[in-house]
Amino acid sequence: MDADGSGLGQLTDSSDTMFYPVWSPDGSRMAVSSARGVYIFDPARPWRDQKPEALPPMEAGRAFVVNSWSADRRWLAGDVGVPSSGIARYSFETRGYERLTDFGEWPVWLGDNRRIMFVSGGKTLHIIDVGTKKVHDVLTVTREVLAPPRVTRDGRTVYFSRRTTEADVWLLELK
Fold first, then answer.
1. Which of 37, 114, 146, 150 is 20 to 30 Å from 158 by CA-CA measure?
2. CA distance linking residue 96 with residue 23, whole number of Å
3. Within 10 Å of residue 62's Cβ, how many Cβ atoms?
């Protein structure tokens, strides 16, 4: 798409509903979730001219919803199911999944390929070390809702939004 909004290009053309596209770190591939699973494809080639790679199913009755690609391109991180019942990672090497938590959503790899940041309940940002599975709370809010975290390309900065709903109370006297 051009900066003025023109030149919008369609990347997928499937009867399956696709959502949450994630670019690989080098931009050569894209992972996308769908009702049938996760697909990996080349965004530079027309959809009809390729056969997207379908990831294997995760576990009976559970979907893997991709959210982030590790900087070393070896792993994907995602939610377990919709709504999420935890965080998991997928290995391109073993073609298998590893459940990391039984809570949380919106995982994003940090630049070291060892830690993942995620949100739980819209109230707490956590970091998990995927080697030890130790979870560290980074930030907890009470009134706000935390949006999914994102990491800059260099892996040095995390950004997210905090949403606060406030209102005044009004009284209307009926006459």
1. 37
2. 20
3. 17
Q: CATH number for the domain including 148?
A: 2.120.10.30
* Mean model confidence pLDDT for the chain: 89
Q: Which two tokens stand for residue 174?
A: 């009926």
At residue 15, the 3 state secondary structure works out as coil
Q: Model-level pTM?
A: 0.85
Instruction: Examine residue 7 and state whether it is found in any structural domain, yes or no.
Output: no
Q: Is the pLDDT of residue 34 over 80?
A: yes
Q: What per-residue confidence (pLDDT) applies to 141?
A: 93
Q: Are 146 and 160 in contact (CB under 8 A)?
A: yes
* Gap between the Cα atoms of 161 and 159, Å rounded: 7
Domain span including residue 126: 18-159
- The residue written with tokens 């809702």 in the block is 145
Q: Give 110's DSSP letter.
A: -
Max CA separation in the chain (angstroms) = 73
Mean pLDDT of 55-75: 90
